[in-house]
Design brief:
binds zinc ion, Purple Acid Phosphatase, chain A, domain 2, 8 helices, six-stranded mixed beta sheet, alpha/beta, 241 residues
Length: 241
């Protein structure tokens, strides 16, 4: 199977269109979304409309649940909270309902899929270190788990007690190893590389490919400013932080 996994679109239509164009060209067997369709960006309805017919399934992100009222904004920083309130007002009733019904975690094509944490899907832990990756994978039954949330693309290879990070963009999976893979963010990368990110998983070749694509960042920034959202949310797209 050749599979594409996207995450953290965050209402960035310019980035999503570029990613979908690439996915269409490569024609995978299926596409999955790890959540955070909305929040921060200025095109939440358009992103759900565009992505929903293309995906086989999706799990909920914390920004999706904040927008539809399933979780409180208490721990959001001020810019994120303001964007969440803007998103709630902007979303159509149908899209609010769609987000409200998304599961927190599930098994998909032999992989565990969850927005942030396989150990505690409703706690929104971040996974940055090998120790954190190792802990999270102890709670996962599948040999591979896909996550988003930190907006930092990368794979951890779990080998017994260790979970070193595999830094290459094309990871060749080794027999007997388990993998925790952050697919990166389509619409708001924070790993210093402003290009849109998604993951390509080829189960026959046993490869994980972190794809990065240049897109119309200026267009996405202009849309955020025109919507009256916090200026910082536009600025950070340019630097990828
Ligand atoms: Zn996110």
């Amino acid at each position: 199977m050749r599979l594409a996994i996207v995450s953290d679109v965050h209402g960035n239509l310019e980035a999503l269109d570029r990613v979908l164009e690439d996915i269409d060209r490569r024609a995978p067997d299926a596409v999955f979304c790890l959540g955070d369709f909305v929040g921060y960006g200025a095109a939440p309805n358009e992103c759900i409309e565009r992505l929903r017919p293309r995906i086989e399934g999706a799990v909920a992100g914390n920004h999706d649940l904040a927008a539809c009222g399933r979780i409180r904004l208490g721990y959001f920083n001020p810019d994120a909270a303001e964007a969440a309130r803007w998103t709630t007002r902007a979303l159509t009733p149908e899209h609010l309902e769609y987000l409200r019904e998304l599961p927190l975690a599930m098994s998909w094509r032999g992989a565990c899929v969850v927005h942030a944490s396989p150990a505690e899907p409703s706690e929104w832990h971040y996974v940055f270190t090998p120790n954190e990756a190792h802990h999270e994978m102890q709670h996962c039954h599948e040999p591979i788990c896909f996550i988003g949330h930190s907006h930092v693309a990368g794979a951890f290879e779990i080998d017994g007690e260790f979970a070193p990070r595999r830094p290459e963009s094309l990871v060749r999976m080794r027999p007997g190893m388990r993998y925790l893979v952050n697919v990166g963010s389509v619409g708001q990368p924070r790993d210093g590389d402003p290009r849109a990110a998604y993951l390509w998983w080829d189960t026959e070749a046993s490869t994980l490919e972190h794809v990065r694509l240049e897109y119309d960042i200026a267009g996405a920034m202009a849309r955020i400013r025109a919507a009256g959202l916090p200026a910082f949310l536009a600025e950070r797209l340019r630097v990828g932080q």
